[in-house]
Amino acid sequence: MDNDRFFFQRYGLTEQDLERYLSAALSAGGDFADLYFEYQYTTSISVDESIVKSATQGISAGCGVRVISGERTGYAYTGELAPERILHAARTAALIASGPSKTPITGFKPEGARSLYPVAPSVDAEMAAKLDLVQRADRAARAYDPRIAQVRVSYADELRHILVAGSDGSIAADVQPLARMHVFCIAKSGAGAESNSARGSTGGGGRVALDFFLTEKTPEHFAVEAARQAIIQLDARPTPAGEMEVVLGPGWPGILLHEAIGHGLEADFNRKGTSAFTGLVGKRVASEKCTVVDNGTLPSRRGSLNVDDEGSPTQNTVLIENGILKQYLSDKLSSRLMGIPDTGNGRRESFEHIPMPRMTNTYMLAGQDDPADIIRSVKYGIFAKNFGGGQVDITNGKFVFSASEAYLIEEGTVTAPLKGCSLIGNGPDVLTRVSMVGNDLQLDEGIGTCGKDGQSVPVGVGIPTLKVDRITVGGTKS
After folding, report:
1. What is the phi/psi pair of residue 61, to 5°?
2. pLDDT tens digit string along 357-384?
3. Local structure of 231: helix, strand or coil
4. What is the largest CA-CA distance in the chain?
5. Domain ranges of the chain
6. What is the topology classification, in CATH, of domain 6-234?
7. Contacting residues for 247 by C-beta, under 8 A, at least 6 apart
8. What is the pTM for the complete model shown?
9. What are the tens digits of pLDDT across the range 112-170?
């Protein structure tokens, strides 16, 4: 436990206490129990119309207790780390089980420590330093073009201490920084009946300290990108509708891969038979050019973790290799029930939430094609450079995504910007239509937040430039 003795020092917690709490959790039987301790500092600042609209800091702490009995899970939590409150939560979670009392293994075996991100906490920096970042972004966005009419900027960071102890003797601790800046712009041109408006947004960060925004990706970087998107959209023409070739740009468009493919590869959906990928391990589900991984071990990335929220080390998991489905993303429960390896993808929003299989950083590996050649290969189609929101039905893989920045491709050349562009299709089917994969893999800037069953967790996405031979484009027929 040398990597973080935070809870032992701050609350006087001992390993004997952990054994006592776990014994209470297994007092009615059960197969497994674990404790998840969390202590979190948070900061949030927002500026709208150059006025500071909010600036908050806070601390939260608590413990979640889980008991697994067969396929059933009991869960209870407390926002107080007093021994009697934890014992009460443990006995409440125990109600799911029935049978003779079980005794947890005595003596804990800590996971080997590793460090994928800095422990220098952004939250220790002065609020004034963070406010300066937000105000710099506001000024830079407004200076980009006089047609930028409205700017909103936000900054948020957190420093989370966790400790996870299981009845199998496993124990792990981590200190997890996370920071993100977001810039949103509205551009306006003309007046009266000729007026026009457009918007652009971007952001980034990761498991980084404050100096990331001073040296690597400055507020000005994000401000200029958001303003650029908004200005370009002022001159966008309606999107032609129909089935056509589509090129996905590198980086953030990987959100389509995350939503349309990634969720369907989470083990709980496949255990319940509700995923379009159920029973397809070892089968071809994509073009041979497609290799997709989920990698929680990338240094400083938003979706990375030294250990997941069950205390298991994260991994680089190959999901699809040359078009063949290799495995699912699993947590301890799915691993136990399905007889598959635990891939270290058990994640939860906070101590108030139960863990479940979730993605970390999900992306497609680079291919051999030159991105310029990919564009040149398209006679008439769409280049989708940035994505907005979308909807996916994981039972059949059907999706609808809006492209926040898209362009027409004519005779192998990117031409006019488009508005109102959406992509409609089926995730597994789209993967089989990938005919070219660029050599320019990019990950997103660090803005991804994934929702599942009411829980949100930070994630990363990425793809190289991809050509999909045929996909339905929703737009406005000219």
Report:
1. -150, 150
2. 999 999 999 999 999 999 999 999 999 9
3. helix
4. 77
5. 6-234, 237-474
6. PmbA/TldD fold (3.30.2290)
7. 374, 375, 378, 381, 382, 383, 384, 409, 465, 466, 467, 468
8. 0.95
9. 778 999 876 555 568 899 999 999 999 999 999 999 999 999 999 999 999 999 999 99
